[in-house]
Amino acid sequence: MVEAQELAVLGLTSYEAAAYLALLGRPELAPAEVAARGAIPRQRVYDVLASLTAKGLCLARDGSPRVYAAVAPAIALELLAGERTAQLARQRLEAEAAAARLTQALAPIFAGGRGQSDPLAYAEVLTGPTRIAHRALALARGATHRVHSCITRPMILSNEQNRTFMEAPLGRGLAYRALCDAATVAEPGFAPLLDSLCGQGLDVRLADALPLKMQAFDDATVLLSMQDPAGGPPSFTAVVIHNRGVAAMLNLAFEQLWAGARPYEGGV
């Protein structure tokens, strides 16, 4: 059984489709009968039948009352398909003309925008340990070559968060070097964490002091975490910088610190 909505692809409304299907089942029907068989409101059925007649799907026969008969589907649906195809062709031409016109109008705006640079496109500012932790993990998971870390107190991430953060690149075979100061290694549970990660490929050295917390991802992005200088409970603001020049400079600083640090021998 064909449903009324199946005829919508040929451009009929739901009421027109219902009326045509109702007419197919009888040699002819009066408007009231079409309304009843097609579940069409009585006040709408006359307009619906007039539209079907104009589209060539039914014939009207004068009488008292006027009656309507369906045109055979082989003829009616071929007419509908032809009209629908022509309508789609017109719409395609109209869309192509509109696209060409709008392209010409919008191209200068786009070109002008390329000459503007937004400094915020290169930097993200994060506050709060939860947001910083989530962003750091996303960056670690997105690294493709190497990670350099400077880890110093006070800690932002828990030991478990640090494990997740470090295992993300280590698990994919990336080079990972971490610089820690002695006070950080003395944090409860941190030395055992380092010991287990060293077994996964983490390379650790100890420095006497580190100027700030830093993670450098590949040669493109750095994450700098800074404690609020106002005092009180540890409060951090982090800045993610997507800039190869900044990343190169901080990687050079990391290499200098790394060269002066001593190897981590485990189990402090």
Short précis:
The protein is an alpha+beta fold and 268 residues long. It has nine helices and ten strands.
Q: What would you note in describing this structure?
A:
By secondary structure, this protein is of the alpha+beta class. It folds into two domains: 1-116, Winged helix-like DNA-binding domain superfamily/Winged helix DNA-binding domain (Arc Repressor Mutant, subunit A); 121-263, Endonuclease Chain A (Endonuclease, Chain A), CATH 3.30.870. It has nine helices and ten strands. It has helices at 14-24, 31-38, 42-54, 73-114, 129-142, 159-170, 182-185, 190-198, 244-260; strands at residues 58-61, 67-70, 123-127, 146-151, 175-181, 203-207, 213-217, 221-227, 236-242, 262-263. The strands form two sheets. It has an eight-stranded mixed sheet with strand order 3-9-8-7-4-5-6-10, sandwiched between helices. Helix 6 (159-170) links the parallel strand 4 (146-151) and strand 5 (175-181). The model has no long low-confidence stretch (mean pLDDT 87).
Jot down its keywords.
268 residues, alpha+beta, Arc Repressor Mutant, subunit A, Endonuclease, Chain A, 2 domains, 8-stranded mixed beta sheet, two-stranded antiparallel sheet, 49% helix, elongated
How is the secondary structure organized here?
Blueprint: H1 14-24, H2 31-38, H3 42-54, E1 58-61, E2 67-70, H4 73-114, E3 123-127, H5 129-142, E4 146-151, H6 159-170, E5 175-181, H7 182-185, H8 190-198, E6 203-207, E7 213-217, E8 221-227, E9 236-242, H9 244-260, E10 262-263
Parallel strand pairs: 4-5, 5-6
Antiparallel strand pairs: 1-2, 3-9, 4-7, 6-10, 7-8, 8-9
